[in-house]
Amino acid sequence: MGSIYHWSGNRKAGEGEMRMTESTTSRVAVDLDFLKPFKASNVTVFQLAPSGDGTDVTWTMTGTRSAVMGLMGKLFFDKAIAADFDKGLAGLKREAEGTTT
Predict the structure, then answer these.
(1) Judgement on whether residues 37 and 15 belong to the same structural domain of the protein
(2) Which SS3 state, helix, strand or coil, does residue 36 take?
(3) Are residues 45 and 26 part of one domain?
(4) Are 52 and 72 contained in the same domain?
(5) Which terminus in the chain has less CB density within 10 A, N or C?
(6) How confident is the model at residue 99 (pLDDT cuts 50, 70, 90)?
(7) Residues 45, 89 within the same domain
(8) What's the confidence (pLDDT) of residue 75?
(9) What pLDDT score was predicted for residue 59?
(10) Sheet strands (E) in the chain
C-alpha cells in the first residue's frame, strides 16, 4: 500500500491526491483528497466479486459534507460524480473485455 497519485489540472479537474490504503483480490480502497476547487476528503472503494466468467465491480465513494456543500452536492456535484463513475466503469469494462468502443 501507500502508492500515491497527485494531480493538478484545469478548472474541471482541479487538484488532489489519491493514496491506496488497501488492495486484496476482492477489494481496493483509496483515500481521495480534493484540494481545489473545493477541499474534501473521501474514501473510494472498489469491491470485486466473481460473476460467471467475469467480475462484478462495485465502485463507491463516501465522505462527509458541510450543510452548504451537501446542498451544492445535491444540486451540482452528485450528477457530475455519477457521470465520472459511469465513464470510469465503462472504460474499465472495455479494457477488461479488450474492446475499443
Answers:
(1) yes
(2) strand
(3) yes
(4) no
(5) C
(6) confident
(7) no
(8) 61
(9) 85
(10) 4-8, 15-23, 27-36, 40-51, 54-63
Q: Identity (one letter) of the amino acid at 3?
A: S
Contacts of 69-76 with CB under 8 Å at 24 or more apart are 69/38, 69/40
pLDDT of 81 reads 72
How far apart CA 48 and CA 41 sit, in angstroms, is: 23
pTM: 0.70
CA-CA distance, 43 to 60, in Å (whole number)? Answer: 8
Residue 61 to residue 81: CA distance in whole angstroms? 9
Three cell numbers at 97? 473485455
Based on the domain organization, do 43 and 72 belong to the same domain? no
Q: Judging by beta carbons within 10 Å of its beta carbon (0-12, 13-18, 19+), is residue 17 exposed, middle or buried?
A: middle
Q: Which domain, by its residues, includes 100?
A: 65-101
Domain count, the chain: 2
**Rounded Cα–Cα distance for residues 63 and 57 (Å):** 20
| DSSP assignments along 38-49, one per residue | S-EEEEEEEEEE
